[in-house]
What does this fold into?
Amino acid sequence: MKRPQTNPKNVDERLELLFRHAGLSDKQAKLYRLLLAVGEERVSVLSHRSGIKRCNTYTLLSDMKARGLVTEFEKENVRFFRPERPEKLESIISARQRECMIATSLAKDLMPDLSTQWKEAVNKPTIRYYQGREGVQTVLEDIYSQGKSEIVGCVGLEKPDEQLFGEIIHTFMPLRIRRKIFTRALNNDSERARELQKNAPDRLSDIFLADGTHYPLPAEIDVYEDKIAFLSFAKKDFMGLIVENKDFAVTLKSVFTLLFSLLQQQQEKPKSALGPTIPPPSVHQA
It folds into this structure.
């Protein structure tokens, strides 16, 4: 009875899988199979026949020697290597399986601690500081970058100088509108703010006004995604700060959302034709 012929390609694939599970690289597997074919050979010949550089060949064989897969010896002052019995591969794989079982057990025991460390690292706020006009532009570019749907915040529009205010109106605002990013903002009552409030719906924004005497807004705050941006334009000493933390962003956005909701309710009461305005605080006497 004839034995069924073995598919050489299938054998090659299974050998490659075996060598991989034993921890051999592709080049080491090539050298080992070459030694199995010739029995023993010089490093120079193994390098030539495998196409691996001689220095790399010796390094790879030395690593295999440390694992007990090959033996090194000298013959007539020339270094030779010969393969150890293939059963050594089985013992190496069994050892790796035991190591995997130990690693799996350790991972199971240590996972709660690792998860705690990961949460602390991920939830740790990231803070980036920017200075100068270019720094502020970098912050504004991040605020109006593609992918977000809404920005909430506050700003005193009288603080930016004419040049920066022009860039905001003529560059960043059209960019925001093209990207369909809606804004809700609390502004100090001023000519600039009232002018913007007139066309707020067309500019995808809600603008609420606050008395700048009683509620000064010398800096700008923008909340978007998991970030909070702070901008200062005082005396042209431009500064910007981006804090990235989900809890901080959600909390501050909730504060703004509550404020805007209350202001929206004021629209049902008699108000200025220009839109909702925060009145000065009441004075109560005892």
Observations:
- Confidence is low (pLDDT under 50) at residues 282-286.
- The two ends are 114 Å apart (CA to CA).
